[in-house]
Amino acid sequence: MKLCMIGTGYVGLVSGTCFADIGNQVICVDKNQDKIKKLKSGISPIYEPGLNELIKKNYLAKRLSFTNDIKYAISSSDIIFICVGTPTKKGSLNVDLSYVFKSCKEILKYTKKKKILVTKSTVPVGTGDKIEKILKKKRRLFNVISNPEFLREGEAIRDFRYPDRIVIGSNEKKTFNIMRKLYSPLISKGSKFFTTSRRGAELIKYASNAFLATKITFINELANLCEKSGVNIEDISLGMGSDSRIGGRFLRAGPAYGGSCFPKDTKGLVSTAEKHRINLSVVKSVIKSNTERVNLLTYRIHKILGSNLKNKRISFLGVTFKPNTDDMRDSTSLKMIPYLSKKGAIINYYDPSGEKKEFENIKNCSFKNNIRNNCFNANLIILLTEWDEFKTIDFKKVVKNKNFKIYDLRNLYNTEEMKRNKIEYYSVGRPLSK
């Protein structure tokens, strides 16, 4: 099939590349000329394991192309996917749909024959109806569908190839067969093809992310209780997760949730509910608790190093919100590092995905290019992101300072082993934490 992906961000680029890899002709279009230039050279603007190789493979096979010419992209395609950003409006819970609506106006401008228009971006309930109003001049030329994505950063290619479910929302049943054909290579491998109304699909995405955010927040709050009551949070997670009704995923205590989805989607769901005069008290509590989580973990550094942090050398292992991605959105590090800088600490950080522009203007904050350079003189090492290369560090060999301490926000290391090695070690929700 001939597909157009409007937007080469995370959703558009990964989905477009994977659609090409299963045999479709895909045009990815973006207004950012520099981004398209890099993509044509085989350079991905995002960090995602395996994506660069997949882009090069399908670009050379001429199944995947990149352009700034939206007129060409739209007129050359039968199915158009809107994959632009839907951020939270500054200072509110409301979703900014301006990029979606701008894309629709461009589509309207350049469409002369029948098209299927698919929203892959996460959008509030009723967005498809608003899109139809924009397209009303040529309404007969469009079938508007909701097809939310459920890709996890760091595992996106696998998630595309082997999805738990493919959700298609449409008010016109004939479009289900077209989308079933598009996704047939995945359905044949066992993926569930789930159809519903367009509004139903829009809400499924928000509800799914809000529920997962709730699980993370719940286990983080229980971790606080475990620390006070002498219980190991890992036992609680395993005991709960073994119940098939609950499941073990997203039940690992750690930092606040972050990334491109959970923070904005919980807020977007609450905003949508408020417009319908519905009080989603549970989701509101999740948002509040997650914000407080960042503050709680940051202030605990004072319990480890004392009230005066001036000239204390603090080294971060990982600063992204999760491993195998370069995504910094709503990472706990974005609040921790500026706070520590203001308190006079000397901060180093190392992340396998590279140096971060977010910390360029932070006083006394430096990027180091490997674990040893990062931790060599540290008073405190904070493990924030559980990249694989952090799992087997011999800290006694890496750190020169004999009195260093470790603050493990991912419970990556064994408390008994740390005791045997006489390392002062702090973790999350464990009774043996200092």
Characteristic terms for this protein:
434 residues, 17 helices, alpha/beta, six-stranded parallel beta sheet, single chain
Describe this structure in words.
Helix content is 42%, strand content 14%. It has helices at residues 10-21, 33-40, 51-60, 70-75, 98-110, 127-134, 156-161, 174-182, 184-187, 198-229, 233-241, 262-275, 281-305, 333-342, 371-375, 395-398, 415-420, and strands at 2-6, 25-29, 64-67, 79-82, 115-119, 142-146, 165-169, 192-196, 313-317, 346-350, 365-367, 380-383, 405-408, 424-426. The strands form three sheets. The protein has a six-stranded parallel sheet, with helices on both faces. A six-stranded parallel sheet has the order 11-10-9-12-13-14. The chain has a two-stranded parallel ribbon with strand order 7-8. The mean pLDDT is 96.
Outline the fold blueprint.
Layout: E1 2-6, H1 10-21, E2 25-29, H2 33-40, H3 51-60, E3 64-67, H4 70-75, E4 79-82, H5 98-110, E5 115-119, H6 127-134, E6 142-146, H7 156-161, E7 165-169, H8 174-182, H9 184-187, E8 192-196, H10 198-229, H11 233-241, H12 262-275, H13 281-305, E9 313-317, H14 333-342, E10 346-350, E11 365-367, H15 371-375, E12 380-383, H16 395-398, E13 405-408, H17 415-420, E14 424-426
Parallel strand pairs: 1-2, 1-4, 2-3, 4-5, 5-6, 7-8, 9-10, 9-12, 10-11, 12-13, 13-14
Helix pairs in contact: 1-3, 10-12, 10-13, 12-13
